[in-house]
Amino acid sequence: MRVKIGYTVELEEVPDRVTEFLKESVHGLATASSDLMDVSVVEHANIALDKIDNIRQKLALVDSRLEDCYIALAGYHNAKMEEYNPDHHHQPPHGAESVNPDDMAALMEEMNILKTSTNNLQQEVGGEGGKDE
What we know:
The protein is an all-alpha fold. The chain is built from three helices and no strands. It has helices at residues 14-37, 45-84, 101-124.
C-alpha cells in the first residue's frame, strides 16, 4: 500500500525539491520505457501480462510524483506572487483546485472496480492477479 506523506521545507527550497522529484520521474520513465522494450507477446501471455502490469504500476508512480511536483510548484508560484502583490488573491493554476469529496469517492470506487476486473482477467488467462508490490 502506498501512502502520501507531507513535510515542510523553506519556500526557497521548493524549486530544488521539485527538480529532484523531476529527476526521479525521468529515471522512472526511462526504466518503464526500457522494461516496455523487453515485453514480448510471443512469450507466454501471463509473463507479458505481469510485465505490462509492472510497467503500468511504475508509470502510476511517476504520475503521482509529477502530481506532487505540480502541486508543490503551484503553491510556490502562488506564494511568490503573494509576496509581490499581497492584496491580490491568486487562483491556483488549472488542475490544482480542490477536488469535490463526492467526485473523489466516485473515482476511487471506479478505480477499485477496474482493478478487480483487471485482476479477474489476469486470473482467467493464467496470471497471478491481485498481487501488490
